[in-house]
Write a structure and sequence with these properties.
The protein is mainly alpha-helical and about 400 residues long. The chain has helices spanning about 1-10, 20-50, 55-75, 80-85, 85-100, 120-140, 140-145, 150-170, 175-190, 195-215, 215-225, 235-250, 275-310, 315-340, 355-385, 395-405; strands spanning about 105, 110-115, 120.
């Protein structure tokens, strides 16, 4: 046994064909999320259920389901994702229709389909399905995207508009904005003309502005965002409590579990505003660490996308880049809302916030990144093996002797 253990220690790890750094980054974020959700949910869990660990147990179950989903997804070849991308998009459209007809309403928004163990949020499925479909479309219609305005540029916008109408009926403007920004990035990477891109950008900004002006509650969010302390017990209440949490955090925080704002002063402390609890308990150091983990994962996704595009795996490249834009922009919106930089949008912090649908779908997205990287490495390995190997010195000498004879 001693020799076997010594051999295991001294033997270098074999080369693998998946990105181990991406796996550890995802695990670090999931573990951080479990710890912070546990800490932030103690008060509300005790009030609602009589026990402090209700939301922690549910989040742990969501993590288990997310990892099981990732194990299944990572076995599916990218070719099948591309083949059935339209079916996935139609499924998400059906789910969005179902949620409008029979969905579970929370705080005036009908966004969830009750499934017993957890409530499914079709908006999360719609994000991933749109990005998978768009990646397939950009591969199949690459010439049209670069050339024809209507054929290659307007068609994906029409698909997005169908999803946006159903999402705005819930209402869920935050998801629409995330999808729109990611779609812009994908079209830009695919080579859409700059004039088309700029015109679409103006149209998108104008549409979002009109949507904000059309709803009074969105206008209240905007006005409270500009000056939350003008109405600290009304429209600006949530943001003022969040800013107090940031102020109390200082450099190294109050210590894990010692947040005051989570004692039901800050609404949604374990979901949309979990980052404020991170800032109060772990301080500036904890905030920087969490952001470094997330944006390192985003950078890894960009590298995987670039490698896939360079190796000719266009579908995987577009999909990886879309996931990186999605994670980065949603993080910016969530952190910005908690810090008072942007208006509140109700978006989760990737792989950290409480929420079964968000956690499962984003873990599936990470599994897709691993699959894209795996297929790129496997393709490179096959090309290396097919290349003729240089002859050794002994072989060269034998050939020279044979020629001489």
């Amino acid at each position: 046994m001693g020799k076997g253990f010594q051999g295991w220690i001294s033997t270098p790890a074999p080369e693998v064909i998946y990105d181990r750094q991406l796996v550890w980054l995802a695990f670090a974020l999931m573990l951080s999320g479990l710890v912070m959700v546990t800490s932030a949910s103690f008060p509300i869990s005790t009030r609602l259920t009589g026990g402090p660990f209700h939301f922690m147990i549910r989040h742990a179950v969501f993590l288990f389901l997310a990892l099981c989903s990732a194990v299944v997804v990572i076995q599916i070849p990218l070719e099948r994702w591309m083949k059935y991308s339209t079916h996935l998009l139609l499924l998400s459209l059906a789910l969005l229709l179902i949620v409008l007809l029979t969905g579970h309403s929370v705080n005036g928004a009908s966004r969830w389909i009750p499934l017993g163990l957890f409530n499914l949020q079709p908006a999360e499925v719609a994000k991933l399905s749109l990005f998978v479909f768009m990646s397939s479309y950009l591969v199949r219609k690459s010439d049209e995207v670069r050339g024809s305005f209507f054929g290659g540029f307007i068609k994906p916008i029409i698909v997005f508009a169908c999803l946006a109408v159903l999402l705005l009926a819930q209402p869920d403007l935050g998801t629409v904005v995330v999808m729109l920004v990611t779609l812009f990035g994908m079209l830009f990477i695919a080579g859409a003309k700059l004039t088309q891109f700029i015109s679409l950008l103006f149209v998108g900004v104008a549409a979002v502005t009109l949507l904000i002006l059309a709803e009074p509650y969105r206008m209240r969010r905007m006005t409270s965002f500009w000056n939350p302390f003008e109405d600290p017990f009304g429209s600006g209440y949530q943001l003022t409590q969040s800013l107090m949490a940031f102020g109390r955090g200082d450099w190294f925080g109050q210590g894990l579990g010692n947040s005051i704002q989570k004692l039901e002063y800050l609404p949604e402390a374990h979901t949309d505003f979990v980052f404020a609890v991170v800032a109060e308990e772990l301080g500036f150091a904890g905030v920087v660490l969490i952001l470094l983990l997330i944006f390192t994962l985003v950078y890894k996704a960009l590298l995987i996308g670039r490698k896939a595009l360079e190796s000719g795996e266009l579908f995987g490249g577009f999909l990886a880049i879309s996931i990186s834009i999605w994670f980065a922009f949603q993080t910016l919106v969530n952190v910005g809302a908690a810090a008072g930089i942007v208006p509140t949008k109700g978006l989760t912090l990737p792989l950290i916030s409480y929420g079964g649908s968000s956690l499962i779908i984003m873990t599936v997205a990470v599994a897709l990144l691993l699959r894209i990287d795996y297929e790129c490495r496997l393709s490179a390995l096959k090309k290396t093996r097919l290349q003729p190997q240089p002859a050794s010195n002994d072989t060269k000498k034998k050939l020279e002797n044979n020629e001489t004879e």
